[in-house]
Amino acid sequence: MARGQFSVEKKKQVLERILPTAHPEDLKACDLVIEAVFEDRELKAKVTKEAEPFMSGQGFFASNTSTLPISGLATAFSYPDKFIGLHFFSPVDKMQLVEIIKGKKTSDETLARAFDFVLSIRKIPIVVNDSRGFYTSRVFSTYVEEGLALLGEGQNPQCIESAGVAAGMPVGPLALTDEISLTLIEHINRQTEADLKAEGKTRPSHPADAVVEKMIHKFDRKGRAFGAGFYDYPEGESKHLWRDLSKVFPLKTDALGQEEMIDRLMFIQAIETVRCLEEGVLNSVADANIGSIFGWGFPPFKGGALQFINDYGVPAFVEKTSELEKKFGKRFATPKLLVEMASGNKVFE
After folding, report:
1. How far apart are the two ends of the chain, measured CA to CA in Å?
2. Model confidence at 14, in pLDDT bands (50, 70, 90)?
3. What sequence ranges are listed for the domain 3-hydroxyacyl-CoA dehydrogenase C-terminal (predicted)?
4. Residue 55, H or E segment
5. Which of 46, 123, 128, 311 could form a disulfide with 98, with the two C-beta atoms 3.0–4.6 Å apart?
């Protein structure tokens, strides 16, 4: 509307269809309710239970969660077959993808209706199976975390940001972390730890964890929304990297070159994408490639996260991941699927 793309009459019609409300009874007879509150399991359950009594008998419920498993959230709804995930991306008006997450009890009818809804609002749908972080958040987070790991190791923060952009990503990992907010990352990690503990499991530690903790609890720098993160945001001026970053995370004398940083930032995303395919979270190679480009901005000229592996050459990719694992840890371990593909001279198709 602000861009003047609607006529006065069209603007009036659209605004008349919007009803801001704090009363769940205003959801009466809604065919679709999309919950989009903070990533907190109990809060989401509360909102779900408040909305359910007022929905249409034929309606279905969706959560816009970016990380919490849909099957778990569906337990707060009386009809888990009518519960699904609809993961939108920020900013919603610009990002084209919607990740549709099918829970363990989601019916085919609910899936079809969700798919039709996404098409009706002119977005690109991909369908994935339930998993913590699903596909997009799970892989996207590896880019952010690897950038933080590089910083924690003592790599130059400006070089880290430059490597991300040089790789073809829309923005460097530190700037991206500021946009997400470090507090949200910490909250998601804590929620994940609590959920896994309840299942008798442990969340693997990551080098990024110490960086997040230090920035929040020692320096009170939580991200752009709080006025300070890895960047400073002076009023009326362009943002710039916090000048004390290199003091907080002292620079190494044997710095990595840009190509090695790029390899780490790109390979970690591709490896996690393969794991999602291997585990059945992804249903197709096409969904993986489309989701990576339109979901979090994987470089379009690389054709998507799995096409990136094809173009690099599967055997060469496996050799490189083995090298990265030896240098930087088990998060770069080669998925079994890739080893099998390399030995059989296969590609993703």
Report:
1. 42
2. confident
3. 133-233
4. strand 55-63
5. 123
Q: Which CATH number is 20's domain given? A: 3.40.50.720
Counted domains in the chain = 1
Token digits for 131? Answer: 């998993």
Asked if residue 160 belongs to a domain, the reply is no
Query: What average pLDDT does the chain have?
Result: 95
Q: Find residue 124's DSSP bridge partners.
A: 97
Indicate the range of 28-32, 122-126, 336-340 predicted with least confidence.
Answer: 28-32
Give the model's confidence band at 1: pLDDT under 50 very low, under 70 low, under 90 confident, else very high: low
Task: Give the residue numbers spanning the domain of 111.
Answer: 8-129
Confirm whether 53 is domain-assigned.
Answer: yes
Percentages helix, strand, coil for the chain (3-state, rounded to 5) are 55, 10, 35
Residue 108 lies in a domain: yes
- Of 316, 62, 8, 292, nearest to 167 by C-alpha is 292
Phi then psi for 282, rounded to 5 degrees? -90, 145
Q: What is the DSSP letter of 117?
A: H
Greater pLDDT, 6 or 234: 234
pLDDT of res. 82: 98
| 181 Rama class: left (phi>0) / alpha (psi -120 to 50) / beta | left
Name the residue among 97, 94, 87 with its Cα closest to residue 290: 97
Among the listed residues 35, 39, 50, 99, the single catalytic one is: 99
- State yes or no: pLDDT of 57 exceeds 90: no
Q: Give the separation between CA 30 and CA 51, rounded to whole angstroms.
A: 10
The answer to whether position 77 is within a domain reads: yes
